[in-house]
Amino acid sequence: QDIQRVVSFEDKNGRNLVAFVRHDQAGGRSLQVIHTAAKANGKRATLRTVNDQVAKCEFDIIADFIAEATQVLDEDGDGVAELYFAYRVDCVSDVSPVTQKLVVLEGGQKHILRGTNRVDNGAEKVGGEFKSEGFEGEKPILARATVIWETIKGH
Asked: Which residue from 33, 32, 26 is spatially nearest to 55, judged by alpha carbons?
């Protein structure tokens, strides 16, 4: 287990701590994000946990957080911060797009963009598309997530 990063911020939920953890295991790798907040009684409560993995890969394991995507904002102005983060997770044996996800945690809610990164395979640039899930009624949050996606899809 390797803690990659810890992010802290304050909002209506109190003092938030988010740990980004990578676990290497035989033939695979998993990523975990744990979002907690301190409650009024001083105890810490888990608001959301996100898990993803590559299990049993015989080729190249891609399972890494994309640091430049991590942002804490309040795009909808409701006093509950949105934590934006992204990662790539796949098992690859060639130069092709890999699975990329951009997640937005807002309190206990999760919004996500799922797609691939963009790569130049020598003949053309391919990939970079995404589909959104869970952004109903959250246009400002989706707009910010889309901007972040565009900045990281080619890295």
From this structure: 26
Predicted confidence (pLDDT) per residue in 122-139, tens digit: 889 999 999 999 999 999
pTM across the whole model? 0.95
Amino acid at 37: A
Alpha helices in the chain (DSSP H): 139-152
Q: Is the dihedral of CA 84, 7, 18, 155 positive or negative?
A: positive
Q: Pick 40 or 45 by higher pLDDT.
A: 45
Grouping H, G, I as helix, E, B as strand and the rest as coil, residue 154 is coil
Q: How many residues does the chain have?
A: 155
Q: How high is the mean pLDDT of the chain?
A: 95
How many other C-beta atoms lie within 10 A of the C-beta of residue 128? 17
Query: Residue 33: which residues within 8 A CB-CB, separation 6 or more?
Result: 18, 19, 20, 21, 48, 49, 50, 85, 103, 105
Rounded to an integer, what distance in angstroms lies between the CA atom of residue 30 and that of residue 64?
9
CA distance 20 to 33: 5
- How is residue 76 annotated by DSSP? T
The span from the CA of 143 to the CA of 138, in Å, is 9
